[in-house]
């Protein structure tokens, strides 16, 4: 403490030296309490990035550091290291941001603080480096001033870790989560990470949802929907009365409109939960003092109640509530957190009656997060926080509108010329809370829960993932013609089993038999044809591309797999047959395909089908021509113009005597294979059939059962709210799945 200023030099050499001019004297120089208060205020000024005079706080930095303008290569651990690149960046840790130089060599990644370099709030391009348990360093979170520099550093690191880096896009994680390959907890961590949320940045700390609403019962019933919070609504919209008051204020508010005066995630809220394990950060944020005892995190139930009823409290949870470390719920440090109005000291967090201790509480919170109800509704919360309901008209409709400053790009800081106003604006953004980066702009699909797996049991799906719905399902294992006939005789008695809205767009195909997508017999690979002329092979387990077949000069419109052969139809007017050379196509090695045959057409081919015996091939073109081929010969057996437009689908009857086709003219045509004669015509968009009876879907959204001999509808079944676009039936004819433009898939079973 000097006559005109206070200087604080941390023991850690990488931390900045702080200097602050003072205009007051300490009445009792030896009073530690006063000194601590002043130093904590100085520390907070630095941590929150210059709430005071930035120039004064760097005036005492060592002259050698003031002069440094590039990375000091004398800091290399080995003299033989070759630097690849260096740039200015910021290293972010809770409440502290240090500007400095990043340098990466062929051996190490370095960060060298530059305390003379002013921290900028424009470093928004983040890169988080996670270290393994065997590394001596800790995880670091870097923010760069340009995307180019961040990406260059990332890809350079990736060259050394090529065999260990998997795709990490929101879409790939979504696919893994949908199929149950990663848990709800893991998926939320991935989404937070992709949205630039980090435990090293309290202003953008990972956000997790409240999922339980019952904190008063002695037993927690995870099978009762009433035990859970409505995940389709933000915290502020859960209480109807409070929401009405907020909406009234919102309607009377001048521009810019916002519904909530506080955010669901901010440094204050994070430290509210973590005060018992990170008291130094709370003291830093609260000017050297803890919050009032009655406003501390005293009780889980009280906190939930205040989030429901409080006029300004809309906070969500943090990952720690679903982790394994319960120390944040216990006052293990013996902190003096004050006394409440009732006289009791603030100690451990009061838990719900259904939790016997903090570890039991976390265990039940984890069970709740992974339970059936939450798995079926978590996508609704993701829409609010990371998805299409985060902004715009959808956010307004969902009552999910926060202050414009909280959104990425909500304020143009570069347009603010006054430095004091800019600092005040940016400080407000940091302290108020920030909305995660938007990851999805369309509705997030629902998770395919185990209950739905049971309903779709079929030989085409993995037996390890599927189990029978009921004992009656076992009767459908019999693949005799008698069982198929029985199923078709009851097709007019289809009973809806379940309905799932798990897609972001209109459903164009069913998972086990898409129009341009199929699953290989080993249930490990999905093969998809593409409009970019290629055929892609995707790993189901990892949701990423494994191989590519480039075999056509135009869009690949339809594919079929039979006896290790791939049949591809293309708009380049050809159909090709490929033979897989590899012993195991599901291995990680590149797969070789040899071209066996090529069938040329006069117009682009849109669909194809193989006869049950695999000897005949039927193709449909964009001009409405149906062509019948012998696989052994490149010459057509028969060629018929039976549609006035593009043919969408063709299929042989089980006895190969007839071909059924449907086109964009909404006509379903039955043709005799031997004579080429037209036998029947009905109106439909998609179909399944047994050779005599047709189950079809149309524009109305209904399913129709047709008798082809009379060309009459036997029965109609209400199904979708829009056109039925695709249909699939298992081999036993006992399970039907339909998809439509209403983004739903519906599972049906004939009633016996």
TrEMBL record:
Pfam families: Beach (PF02138), PH_FAN (PF25400), WD40 (PF00400). InterPro entries: BEACH_dom, BEACH_dom_sf, BEACH_Domain, FAN-like_PH, WD40/YVTN_repeat-like_dom_sf, WD40_repeat_dom_sf, WD40_rpt. SMART domains: Beach, WD40. WD repeats lie at residues 549-579, 598-639, 640-681, 717-752. Residues 162-447 form the BEACH domain. Keywords: Repeat, WD repeat. This is Neutral sphingomyelinase (N-SMase) activation associated factor. It comes from Cyprinus carpio (Common carp). The lineage of its organism: Eukaryota, Metazoa, Chordata, Craniata, Vertebrata.
